Amino acid sequence: MSSPQLSGILPSAVSYLALIPAKTIPFAWNLITAGYIEQSIYGVVISTIGLLFIGKLLEPIWGSREFLKFIFVVNFLTSVCVFTTAISLYYITRQELYLYLPISGFEGVLAGFLVGIKQIIPDQELSLLKIKAKWLPSLALLVSVVLSFITTESASYLPTLIFGTYIGWIYLRYWQTKPETKLRGDPSDEFAFYTFFPEFLRPVIAPVSTLFERMICGKRSETADETRGYTLGGNVLPGSDPIEASRRREKGARALEERLAERLAAARRTEETQNDASENV
Q1: What pTM did the predictor assign?
Q2: Of the candidates 56, 85, 175, 238, which lies 20 to 30 Å from 273 by C-alpha distance?
Q3: Cβ neighbours around 120 below 10 Å, total
Q4: 215-233: buried (b, 16+ CB within 10 Å) or exposed (e) per residue?
Q5: Residue 61 and residue 256: Cα distance in Å, rounded?
Q6: Residue 173, CA distances (Å) to 61, 68, 191 in order
Q7: Tell me, what DSSP letter sits at residue 40?
């Protein structure tokens, strides 16, 4: 079943704001605006719920400025990657579909949010799904890949989700500034690229990801002082302290517990109010 479309209501808005590779030059602004316009009612609902619920967890930990910066960077770079992929596919296949298919939606940023959840509370078990939070990005991609074989609409979202996940990881791994320490990134082993894959695939993925890690971050020191993390020219790279990574995860877990406690207290107050009202009646 296809989702209700908004593009029929605002066709001109989609034409100018969505990412249409053939029109990106000169309409380069759609690399930014594409992430903030939805073409279906379902997309609006999912994006709104995702932003409200996940944002309430991440924003207090990252800070408002860093939270907005994450959204902007992940959205923009995801659009750039999708645009580059579409142009490449056109030159390979010569199918104009890749040039004129309008692509938009907040899904790339939502995928990046899931990577943030993986980083902050990796071992927190989600009661509804019965899985740990660290598997949320991988599970979302797996479901998206499966659905892409079922419906063409799902297939159109797949590149955005893949690049959103990857750019979100790149940002948190290397670029994010931590307000409390002014350090950058999170090169801890628990947040390495191969941790997105099941255990049986890691022996294949780990050597390749480690090679890229060393190219970008330098190499790990092998002396007793090297337990702090990555080094480059004998200096510890900022943000590579595993103690700092552990502190950030603990902070995330505390924030989640506080959110759950607030919701539980609110639910109890509502229940007490209803009981009092029924007794008065």
Answers
A1: 0.73
A2: 56
A3: 24
A4: eebbebbeeeeeeebbbee
A5: 10
A6: 16, 17, 8
A7: B
Q: Where are the domains of the chain?
A: 11-280
Give yes or no for a contact between 20 and 30, defined as CB atoms under 8 angstroms apart: yes
- The neighbour count for residue 155, using CB atoms within 10 Å, is 14
Going by C-alpha positions, the residue among 174, 179, 168 that lies closest to residue 229 is 174
In our burial notation (b when 16+ CB lie closer than 10 A, e otherwise), range 84-117 reads eebeebbeeeeeeebeeebbbbbbbbbbbbbbbb
Taken in order 140, 142, 145, 150, is the CA torsion positive or negative?
A: negative
CB 121 within 8 A of CB 95: no
Q: pLDDT tens for the chain, 281 residues: list them.
A: 344 444 444 566 777 788 888 888 888 888 998 888 887 788 888 888 988 888 888 988 888 889 999 999 999 999 999 999 999 999 999 888 888 888 888 999 999 999 999 998 888 887 777 788 888 999 999 988 898 888 777 777 888 999 999 999 999 988 887 766 667 788 788 888 888 888 888 888 888 887 777 766 554 433 333 434 443 333 444 444 555 555 555 665 566 566 656 655 665 666 666 656 555 55
